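We treat protein structure as text, and this decision shapes the records that our systems exchange. This encoding replaces a full spatial description with a residue-level series of whole-number codes. Below, we set out a record of this kind in full and without editing:
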Amino acid sequence: MRGHGRSGHGAVARGGFHVARLAADLREVLRFLKRSAAASPTAAYVSGPGPESGAAAAGGGGGEVKFVLVGCSIGAAVLWTHIELFGEDLDGDGCCAGYVFVDQAPLQDRAGPLGLGGAWDARHAHRGCFDEASLFAAQEAWVRRPAETHRALVAECLGYRVQPREGDAVGEEQARRDEEFFVAISARCDGVWLARLLADHTRYDHREALEGITRPTLVMAGRRSGCFPLEGVAETAERIRKGGNQQVEMLVFESGHWLFYEEPERFNRELLRFVDMCTR
């Protein structure tokens, strides 16, 4: 995604630190893949979520491509925004076959019962960035203490660091390699740009928009996530069902926010099963 990993963020389109800009980027990528599939009938495109949070697309070849959109963390918010802004298809052609949303609540901030969608408290909201004060603290950390913040991110996203268990088969050497791996990825990003994106992301309230989703949906959550409580992630599935779509499944993993890293075999198995169901 723009501003993540090795992707740039400002030379061509200034600003860009908005979830809606990322959703528009996604739309351009999907249209490119769709055009490419039409030009090359034997082409197939499969892209899954890597170690960085983000949105991905999985599709098949044969000239007619279908997408199962996978969003992890803020990537889920990008998908929800894409659906709200552009609908569930690119051009009314039914090419979006399903969605997978991974460990993201539909609202990060806490909200009181002031006509703003009902109570949304610590049982639902992000554990560490949930109001003006905590947002400012997070932004200050990203900008002024990046090295420390990269390591703190690892500590809140890996389940065996958040809630250690006696049966965790992770030794000191593996834990050190994990931390170095993720710190190196985070260090590629511009902390100031990400801090501005965070301010936009944490304010978005996607709850009502979820009720308009009509395609099969898989929601995944990490029981030991240091980012979101299960109840907050579960609201995603509940809202979709409230809108009348019962083709929703929720799976809980025994890992943290990066469940695709801690339980890759199960994650990949469930993802491929769901993609096959949506695209057969």
